[in-house]
Amino acid sequence: MSTFAGSWALVTGASSGIGESLARELGRRGANVVLTARSGGKLATLAKEIATTDRVETRVLIADLSTEAGIWQLLVLVDALGVPIDHVIANAGFGGFGEFVRQSEREQLEMVTLNCGALTVLVRHFLPKQIERGRGGALLVASTASFQPTPLYSVYGATKHYVRALGEALAAEVQGTGVRVSVLCPGPVATGFQSRAGASIARAQERSVLSADNTARIALDGYERGRVIVVPGRMNKMLRAVATAMPNRVVVPATLRMMRTKDRV
Protein backbone atom coordinates (compact mmCIF):
# COMPACT_ATOMS: atom_id res chain seq x y z
CA MET A 1 0.00 0.00 0.00
CA SER A 2 1.17 3.51 -0.79
CA THR A 3 2.57 5.62 2.04
CA PHE A 4 0.00 8.23 1.05
CA ALA A 5 -3.20 6.20 0.60
CA GLY A 6 -5.91 7.61 2.88
CA SER A 7 -3.55 10.07 4.55
CA TRP A 8 -3.72 13.88 4.67
CA ALA A 9 -1.00 16.05 3.15
CA LEU A 10 -0.58 19.81 3.50
CA VAL A 11 0.98 21.37 0.39
CA THR A 12 2.21 24.96 0.53
CA GLY A 13 2.69 26.97 -2.64
CA ALA A 14 0.28 24.59 -4.37
CA SER A 15 -1.15 26.96 -6.98
CA SER A 16 1.58 26.51 -9.61
CA GLY A 17 4.90 24.93 -10.54
CA ILE A 18 6.37 22.12 -8.47
CA GLY A 19 3.75 22.67 -5.75
CA GLU A 20 0.88 22.08 -8.16
CA SER A 21 2.58 18.97 -9.54
CA LEU A 22 3.21 17.63 -6.04
CA ALA A 23 -0.47 18.15 -5.18
CA ARG A 24 -1.60 16.28 -8.30
CA GLU A 25 0.85 13.44 -7.71
CA LEU A 26 -0.27 13.11 -4.09
CA GLY A 27 -3.86 12.79 -5.27
CA ARG A 28 -2.86 10.09 -7.74
CA ARG A 29 -1.23 8.19 -4.87
CA GLY A 30 -4.42 8.34 -2.80
CA ALA A 31 -3.67 11.21 -0.43
CA ASN A 32 -6.26 13.73 0.67
CA VAL A 33 -4.76 17.18 0.26
CA VAL A 34 -4.95 20.54 1.98
CA LEU A 35 -3.80 23.10 -0.57
CA THR A 36 -2.57 26.52 0.40
CA ALA A 37 -1.20 29.55 -1.47
CA ARG A 38 -2.11 33.18 -2.04
CA SER A 39 -4.10 32.48 -5.23
CA GLY A 40 -7.58 31.34 -4.25
CA GLY A 41 -9.01 30.91 -7.73
CA LYS A 42 -6.23 28.65 -8.95
CA LEU A 43 -6.36 26.55 -5.79
CA ALA A 44 -10.12 26.03 -6.01
CA THR A 45 -9.84 24.83 -9.61
CA LEU A 46 -6.94 22.51 -8.76
CA ALA A 47 -8.72 21.09 -5.71
CA LYS A 48 -11.83 20.31 -7.75
CA GLU A 49 -9.79 18.59 -10.46
CA ILE A 50 -7.89 16.42 -7.95
CA ALA A 51 -11.06 15.48 -6.05
CA THR A 52 -12.87 14.52 -9.24
CA THR A 53 -10.02 12.66 -10.92
CA ASP A 54 -8.58 10.80 -7.92
CA ARG A 55 -11.64 10.54 -5.65
CA VAL A 56 -9.87 11.99 -2.64
CA GLU A 57 -10.84 14.78 -0.28
CA THR A 58 -9.45 18.25 -0.81
CA ARG A 59 -9.43 21.47 1.21
CA VAL A 60 -8.34 24.97 0.18
CA LEU A 61 -6.84 27.56 2.54
CA ILE A 62 -5.66 31.01 1.47
CA ALA A 63 -2.63 32.40 3.28
CA ASP A 64 0.35 34.66 2.63
CA LEU A 65 3.28 32.86 4.23
CA SER A 66 5.70 35.69 3.50
CA THR A 67 4.32 37.46 6.59
CA GLU A 68 4.43 36.31 10.19
CA ALA A 69 0.71 36.99 10.58
CA GLY A 70 -0.03 34.81 7.55
CA ILE A 71 1.97 31.91 8.99
CA TRP A 72 0.09 31.90 12.28
CA GLN A 73 -3.22 32.36 10.48
CA LEU A 74 -2.58 29.24 8.40
CA LEU A 75 -1.90 27.14 11.50
CA VAL A 76 -5.23 28.21 12.97
CA LEU A 77 -7.05 27.43 9.73
CA VAL A 78 -5.46 23.99 9.33
CA ASP A 79 -6.15 23.02 12.94
CA ALA A 80 -9.78 24.10 12.50
CA LEU A 81 -10.19 21.54 9.71
CA GLY A 82 -9.94 18.77 12.28
CA VAL A 83 -7.92 16.42 10.03
CA PRO A 84 -4.55 14.85 10.92
CA ILE A 85 -1.76 16.28 8.77
CA ASP A 86 0.35 13.20 8.09
CA HIS A 87 2.66 14.85 5.54
CA VAL A 88 3.88 18.44 5.41
CA ILE A 89 4.97 19.29 1.87
CA ALA A 90 6.81 22.58 2.47
CA ASN A 91 7.15 23.84 -1.09
CA ALA A 92 6.30 27.55 -0.93
CA GLY A 93 9.22 29.82 -1.74
CA PHE A 94 10.65 32.33 -4.17
CA GLY A 95 13.99 33.73 -5.26
CA GLY A 96 15.37 37.05 -6.37
CA PHE A 97 18.11 37.32 -9.00
CA GLY A 98 20.70 40.08 -8.98
CA GLU A 99 23.32 41.73 -6.83
CA PHE A 100 22.54 41.69 -3.12
CA VAL A 101 22.82 45.48 -2.77
CA ARG A 102 20.37 46.07 -5.63
CA GLN A 103 17.57 43.94 -4.17
CA SER A 104 15.08 45.59 -1.85
CA GLU A 105 15.25 44.93 1.88
CA ARG A 106 11.51 44.16 1.89
CA GLU A 107 11.85 41.47 -0.78
CA GLN A 108 14.80 39.92 1.02
CA LEU A 109 12.92 39.84 4.33
CA GLU A 110 9.86 38.28 2.68
CA MET A 111 12.11 35.68 1.05
CA VAL A 112 13.67 34.68 4.36
CA THR A 113 10.28 34.64 6.10
CA LEU A 114 8.68 32.46 3.43
CA ASN A 115 11.56 30.17 2.54
CA CYS A 116 12.80 29.64 6.12
CA GLY A 117 10.40 30.98 8.72
CA ALA A 118 7.13 29.55 7.41
CA LEU A 119 8.69 26.16 6.69
CA THR A 120 10.21 25.96 10.18
CA VAL A 121 7.01 26.90 11.98
CA LEU A 122 4.84 24.52 9.96
CA VAL A 123 7.13 21.55 10.48
CA ARG A 124 7.51 22.35 14.19
CA HIS A 125 3.73 22.54 14.55
CA PHE A 126 2.89 19.20 12.94
CA LEU A 127 5.97 17.05 13.61
CA PRO A 128 5.22 16.29 17.30
CA LYS A 129 1.76 14.97 16.38
CA GLN A 130 3.25 12.84 13.62
CA ILE A 131 5.76 11.37 16.07
CA GLU A 132 2.93 10.57 18.51
CA ARG A 133 1.08 8.70 15.74
CA GLY A 134 4.29 7.05 14.53
CA ARG A 135 3.73 7.89 10.88
CA GLY A 136 4.08 10.62 8.27
CA GLY A 137 6.70 13.31 8.06
CA ALA A 138 7.83 16.28 6.02
CA LEU A 139 9.15 16.89 2.53
CA LEU A 140 11.11 20.14 2.45
CA VAL A 141 11.79 21.76 -0.91
CA ALA A 142 15.29 23.20 -1.12
CA SER A 143 17.38 23.50 -4.31
CA THR A 144 20.68 22.52 -5.86
CA ALA A 145 21.60 26.09 -4.88
CA SER A 146 21.79 24.75 -1.32
CA PHE A 147 25.05 22.92 -2.02
CA GLN A 148 27.22 26.02 -2.48
CA PRO A 149 27.05 29.80 -1.97
CA THR A 150 25.27 31.21 -5.02
CA PRO A 151 26.30 34.72 -6.12
CA LEU A 152 23.45 36.74 -7.69
CA TYR A 153 21.06 34.42 -5.86
CA SER A 154 22.78 35.09 -2.54
CA VAL A 155 19.77 35.30 -0.22
CA TYR A 156 17.81 32.61 -2.04
CA GLY A 157 20.76 30.23 -1.97
CA ALA A 158 21.33 30.94 1.71
CA THR A 159 17.69 30.20 2.54
CA LYS A 160 17.84 26.92 0.67
CA HIS A 161 21.05 25.95 2.48
CA TYR A 162 19.10 26.52 5.70
CA VAL A 163 16.28 24.28 4.47
CA ARG A 164 18.67 21.47 3.56
CA ALA A 165 20.62 21.73 6.81
CA LEU A 166 17.42 21.75 8.86
CA GLY A 167 16.00 18.79 6.97
CA GLU A 168 19.13 16.68 7.35
CA ALA A 169 19.25 17.42 11.09
CA LEU A 170 15.57 16.59 11.57
CA ALA A 171 15.92 13.37 9.60
CA ALA A 172 18.51 12.23 12.14
CA GLU A 173 16.39 13.34 15.10
CA VAL A 174 13.29 11.40 14.02
CA GLN A 175 15.05 8.12 13.22
CA GLY A 176 13.21 5.20 14.79
CA THR A 177 9.95 7.11 15.32
CA GLY A 178 8.18 5.96 12.16
CA VAL A 179 8.41 9.53 10.82
CA ARG A 180 10.57 10.60 7.88
CA VAL A 181 12.05 13.90 6.73
CA SER A 182 13.27 14.32 3.16
CA VAL A 183 14.77 17.30 1.38
CA LEU A 184 14.07 17.82 -2.31
CA CYS A 185 16.92 19.62 -4.09
CA PRO A 186 15.76 20.26 -7.66
CA GLY A 187 17.82 21.97 -10.29
CA PRO A 188 16.18 24.34 -12.78
CA VAL A 189 12.52 23.61 -13.48
CA ALA A 190 10.62 25.64 -16.07
CA THR A 191 7.96 27.28 -13.87
CA GLY A 192 6.94 30.79 -12.85
CA PHE A 193 9.94 30.84 -10.49
CA GLN A 194 12.25 32.34 -13.12
CA SER A 195 9.80 35.10 -14.03
CA ARG A 196 9.38 36.19 -10.41
CA ALA A 197 13.12 36.01 -9.81
CA GLY A 198 13.76 38.25 -12.81
CA ALA A 199 15.97 35.85 -14.76
CA SER A 200 15.88 32.98 -17.20
CA ILE A 201 17.57 29.60 -16.83
CA ALA A 202 21.33 29.90 -17.36
CA ARG A 203 22.62 28.43 -20.59
CA ALA A 204 24.97 26.18 -18.63
CA GLN A 205 21.97 24.69 -16.82
CA GLU A 206 19.71 24.06 -19.80
CA ARG A 207 20.69 20.38 -20.08
CA SER A 208 19.65 19.76 -16.49
CA VAL A 209 16.10 21.16 -16.79
CA LEU A 210 13.33 18.77 -15.71
CA SER A 211 9.57 19.22 -15.84
CA ALA A 212 7.64 19.98 -12.66
CA ASP A 213 5.67 16.73 -13.04
CA ASN A 214 8.81 14.61 -13.33
CA THR A 215 10.36 16.43 -10.38
CA ALA A 216 7.27 15.76 -8.26
CA ARG A 217 7.26 12.03 -9.06
CA ILE A 218 10.94 11.66 -8.19
CA ALA A 219 10.44 13.67 -5.00
CA LEU A 220 7.59 11.54 -3.67
CA ASP A 221 9.32 8.31 -4.69
CA GLY A 222 12.36 9.39 -2.67
CA TYR A 223 10.22 10.43 0.28
CA GLU A 224 8.40 7.08 0.30
CA ARG A 225 11.74 5.27 0.27
CA GLY A 226 12.99 7.32 3.22
CA ARG A 227 15.76 9.09 1.32
CA VAL A 228 17.02 12.16 3.18
CA ILE A 229 18.31 14.08 0.13
CA VAL A 230 16.50 13.77 -3.20
CA VAL A 231 18.23 15.29 -6.22
CA PRO A 232 16.23 14.74 -9.43
CA GLY A 233 18.12 14.25 -12.68
CA ARG A 234 21.53 12.80 -13.57
CA MET A 235 23.03 16.17 -14.48
CA ASN A 236 21.91 17.72 -11.18
CA LYS A 237 23.45 14.80 -9.28
CA MET A 238 26.73 15.40 -11.09
CA LEU A 239 26.65 19.12 -10.30
CA ARG A 240 25.97 18.33 -6.65
CA ALA A 241 28.94 15.97 -6.53
CA VAL A 242 31.21 18.62 -8.01
CA ALA A 243 29.92 21.36 -5.71
CA THR A 244 30.40 19.29 -2.57
CA ALA A 245 33.79 17.86 -3.56
CA MET A 246 35.51 21.10 -4.48
CA PRO A 247 36.40 23.97 -2.11
CA ASN A 248 34.19 27.07 -2.16
CA ARG A 249 37.11 29.22 -3.31
CA VAL A 250 36.84 27.32 -6.61
CA VAL A 251 33.10 26.65 -6.72
CA VAL A 252 31.84 30.15 -5.89
CA PRO A 253 33.66 32.03 -8.71
CA ALA A 254 32.56 29.31 -11.17
CA THR A 255 28.98 29.67 -9.95
CA LEU A 256 29.15 33.43 -10.41
CA ARG A 257 30.29 32.98 -14.01
CA MET A 258 27.41 30.59 -14.66
CA MET A 259 24.86 32.90 -13.05
CA ARG A 260 26.06 35.80 -15.21
CA THR A 261 24.98 33.85 -18.31
CA LYS A 262 21.34 34.30 -17.25
CA ASP A 263 19.32 36.65 -19.40
CA ARG A 264 16.92 38.98 -17.69
CA VAL A 265 13.26 38.28 -18.44
Walkthrough of the structure:
The chain is of the alpha/beta class. It has one domain: NAD(P)-binding Rossmann-like Domain (Rossmann fold). The protein is 50% helix and 12% strand. The protein has nine helices and seven strands. The protein has helices spanning 17-28, 40-54, 68-81, 105-133, 154-173, 193-197, 212-224, 234-245, 248-259, and strands at residues 8-12, 32-37, 58-62, 87-90, 137-141, 180-184, 229-230. It has a seven-stranded parallel sheet, with helices on both faces. Helix 4 links the parallel strand 4 (87-90) and strand 5. Helix 4 runs parallel beside helix 5 (154-173). The longest helix has 29 residues, at 105-133.
Task: Please write out the topology.
Layout: E1 8-12, H1 17-28, E2 32-37, H2 40-54, E3 58-62, H3 68-81, E4 87-90, H4 105-133, E5 137-141, H5 154-173, E6 180-184, H6 193-197, H7 212-224, E7 229-230, H8 234-245, H9 248-259
Note the main attributes of this structure:
globular; 9 helices
CATH top level? Alpha Beta
N→C terminal distance: 45 Å
Indicate the low-confidence ranges by residue numbers: none
Report the sheet with the most strands, covering strand number, pairing sense and barrel closure.
Answer: 7 strands, parallel
The total number of structural domains is 1
Q: Mean pLDDT, rounded to whole units?
A: 90
Q: In the CATH classification, which architecture applies?
A: 3-Layer(aba) Sandwich
Radius of gyration: 18 Å
**Secondary-structure element string:** EHEHEHEHEHEHHEHH
Number of helices: 9
Number of DSSP E strands: 7
The amount of helix comes to: 40-55%
Fraction of residues in β-strands: 5-15%
Strand order of the largest sheet: 3-2-1-4-5-6-7
Structural class: alpha/beta
What best-fitting shape do the alpha-carbon axes yield? globular
- CATH topology-level fold name: Rossmann fold
